[in-house]
Every structure is written in structure tokens, then in C-alpha cells.
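Okay, any thoughts on this one?
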Amino acid sequence: MKILDAVVTASEAYYDVLKHFGTYYFVACDGEKIVAAHWTEKFDLHVRVGDPLNPHWLIAKAVHETTTQETIVDQEHTTLNQSYVGKAIPLFQDGVCVGALGYYLSTEHVEKQNHVVHEVHELVQSLQTISDSFIETSQHVNTIQEEINIGMDDFATRFSHMQDASSTIQNIAAQTNLLGLNAAIEAARAGEHGRGFSVVADEVRKLSSESKKFASDIHHTIQVLSSSVNLLQSKAQSIYQVGEEQTASAAEIRDVAMKVEAIASELRGLFSNGDAINSSTR
């Protein structure tokens, strides 16, 4: 069997193997025309069996120059709207060039694969940025929480002193009131001679009454402050919990980012293997 006939016979099977590794266009020719052509709708060079050789075609150059020809075509210089690489190998029979075998590979899938990997990488970067932002915010919240706790502890100490002072004022008011009552009793016993002392007793009881009212106002204010402090502590605890949740969320996001990056690495490996296979067939 002539080598050209063998190539034509095996061309379909050869193309069926190649198409699993990329988008190929496979052709064979004799010295004058195309004798075999296989392609897909996505990558059609519009060369058909029986078409006469165009001297500008890569496969025609391989026949006329009897040397292997290679080309790289950018999508900007072709009506196919996609880039591709091509290779044409002359076929010899008894030392004479009887035709050529040509195959072209669209690089569109490689570009798409690289784009996907790039998009995945950018997604990973975004996730890591979000994670870092969460961690930074959480750390800031924790710092604020610590400052609030210090302030609350200081306030609690002063608050305790206020309560002690209020209790002391209430005790003084009670003692003053008792002293006023005793003074009034003694003034009554003294009769006319105790009239001046009676005035003093009235003033003492008046002071006691005002002190008692003042102590009551302080006690009420302390109760209001106590409620406010409890509410503030509750809010501070909520802020702390939010910070903890953000830290946990950041850890989860970082974990997802690492998994996505691992997938991207696997994709790079697969695409690299595919490119290696394609390179070996060029």
C-alpha cells in the first residue's frame, strides 16, 4: 500500500484520537489536491476533499518545499475569530514527496482554560482579602472590647464608692433626724428657757429631711446608672460575640479559599498535561 493511501485510510481514526485532546482540523493531500479532511463545526478552515492546493496553504508549502512547515495564526489575522497553530509534514514514497499531512489546533480551549484558572485565582485572592478584612475587624473589635472592659471595671469601682457614699448619707440623715427629735424633746422640757434650742432642733430636723431626700435622689440615680451599666455590659458582650463569629467566619472563608486554590492547582496541572499532549502531536 502506498503511504498516502495508508494515511488517508487511517486519517479518520487518527482524527478521532486527536479530537479528545483539543479542537483539531486534520487534512492530507497529494501533489495537487486535498485527499482527506476532518474537522468540527467550531474549527473549520473550509478546506474540503477535492479542493486544489493553494500555494499559500501550509500543507502546499510542505509539498513544494519538501520540509516540515509550522505556523501560529492569531485570531486578529483570520476570519475564524480564534487563534490556532498548524503543522504540515511532507510524505515520501521511494524518496519522492507524494503529498503531505497537516493538522491544525485551535488554541481557543487553552485560552479559555487559562482564563478560568485566572478567574479562580482572582476569586481566591478576593476571598483571602475578605478573610483578612474580617480578621482585622475582629481584632479591632476585640481591642475595643478590652478597652470597654477596662472602663467598665473602673466605673464599677467608682460606682461601688458612690453606693457606699449614698449609704453613708442615708445613715447621717437618720442620725441627724434622731438628734433633732431628741433636741426638740429637751427644748420642750426646758420650756421658756429652751425656746432658742427649739429653733436649732427644727433646723436640724429640716437638714435631716433634706439630707434624706438628697440621699434618695442619689440612690435613684445609682439605680438608673446600674441599669445602664448592665445594658452596656450586655451590648459589649454582644460585640465580643460578633467579633468571635467574624473570626470563625474568616477562618471558614480562608479554608474555602485554600480548597479553591487547590482545585485551581489541579486544573493547572490538567491543562498543562493537555498542552503537553498537544505539543507532542504537533
